């Protein structure tokens, strides 16, 4: 049996991780960011540019991302640009990144340390729904 922590660590070993500093620079460059935490977590505090798509429904909702919704080739449009995933500590985002890579996306990045690291480093956050 593999526990959740081990499963997350295995996923982290299989995906591309970036630091919060790298994410902040990517946001300045117009990156797409998806927060894979649950809505209540997102509402409490999130990165202003992030779209909330909980991990449990991410694969099903990805084509509804505001940047690509309504296009017949929504998934291809998502795949054309780097996609950054963030959660609380980096476990769920790593699992989500692994799943999206299986769907064929190759420019997917998980943020190491997640929102915990982002907040610890006093990077800008928003609260409430966006």
Automatic annotation (TrEMBL):
Gene Ontology MF terms in the entry: thiosulfate-cyanide sulfurtransferase activity
The UniProt keyword set, sorted, is: Transferase
Q: Which SMART domains match?
A: RHOD
InterPro entries given in the database record: Rhodanese-like_dom, Rhodanese-like_dom_sf
Transferase as a keyword of this entry, yes or no, is yes
Q: Which Gene3D superfamilies match?
A: Rhodanese-like domain
Segments crossing the lipid bilayer: none
Using the record's annotation, list all stretches that form the Rhodanese domain. Answer: 27-127
User: Is Cell inner membrane there in the keyword field?
Assistant: no
* Annotated PROSITE patterns: RHODANESE_3
* Protein origin, superkingdom: Bacteria
Q: What is this protein called?
A: Sulfurtransferase
Q: Which organism is it from?
A: Idiomarina seosinensis
């Amino acid at each position: 049996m593999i526990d959740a922590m081990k499963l997350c660590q295995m996923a982290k070993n299989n995906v591309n991780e970036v630091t919060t500093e790298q994410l902040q620079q990517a946001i300045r460059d117009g990156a797409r960011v998806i927060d894979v935490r649950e809505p209540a977590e997102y509402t409490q505090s999130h990165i202003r540019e992030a779209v909330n798509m909980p991990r449990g429904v991410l694969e099903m909702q990805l084509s509804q991302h505001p940047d690509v919704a309504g296009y017949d080739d929504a998934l291809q449009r998502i795949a054309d640009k780097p996609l950054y995933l963030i959660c609380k500590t980096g476990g769920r985002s790593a699992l989500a990144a692994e799943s999206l890579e299986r769907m064929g996306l190759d420019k997917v990045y998980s943020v190491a340390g997640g929102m915990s690291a982002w907040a610890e480093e006093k990077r800008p956050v928003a609260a409430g729904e966006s």
